[in-house]
Fold this sequence. Notes:
By secondary structure, the chain is mostly helical. The chain is built from 15 helices and two strands.
Amino acid sequence: MIDDGTGRFTIGQLARSTGLSVRTIRYWSDEGALPPVARSSGGYRLYDAGSVARLELIRTLRELGLGLDDVREVLAGETTVAEVAATHVTALDAQIRALKVTRAVLSTVARRGSTAEEMTLMNKLARLSAAERRRILEEFTDEMFRGLDTADPVIRERMRNTAVDLPDEPTPEQADAWVELVELLQDPEFRAQMRAAAEFNAADRGHDTPAGASLWFVRRLVQMAADARERGIAPEAPEAEEVLRELLGDADRAAVLERLEATSNDRIARYRELLAVVKGGGPLPAHREEFGWVVAALRARPGR
């Protein structure tokens, strides 16, 4: 406090009492957030007890990340602290989402040892909006089933709906899986494999086939193959014939083998695993062993 008995403070005295630098207080004063209440005879800015309280509020708001424009509006009574805080929370949420994406991309780059060009692509893919990600998968699904009116509608809808659950805030694992998934979807060989699988599905069905029948067969195959493996039955063993007979009945085994080889390869299994990770549920079992057992059992009996 200066010695004129007025209870006024200089900037230096405010700095010593608050721990703030003279430069910071002067800047806030110059910006209109902390106007002086008077001037000394020498032209120095003077402040009072109210200025001290105002300075503490300014410091708190600034430490919380508010800009000086928001601070001035609060101090002028043009808005409330609660309103500014709510706006700032929204901005912070956006920053947090962006930081999560950045962390995910950098984590993937570090793990893969990516080049600058690959990092640029990964960053672009990771920052796609939910609508853009949905469009990529919907276009892929449309291409897979175009013109195949008898394809199982349950499978078609499942593939289309996978895009709905893609996250806006990917974890590093989800970002990595999303980048690998897009690379897979853009691969001509994989697209041809998926189209062949859709064509086989459509060829196996008529217009009166119940929806979801394809999934029923898959569940039955997995269950029976898992049981055979648990009992220690090798695909080449005589006991495997009984399993195939119960599973397939009188079906053309050569045709079944052709379809399984087209629809149960490692890349299609990887596609399902990546989708599960991107959707946030963790990797789902692709049942590679069960499908592999049935394929091996059919290959061991080529003439039947």
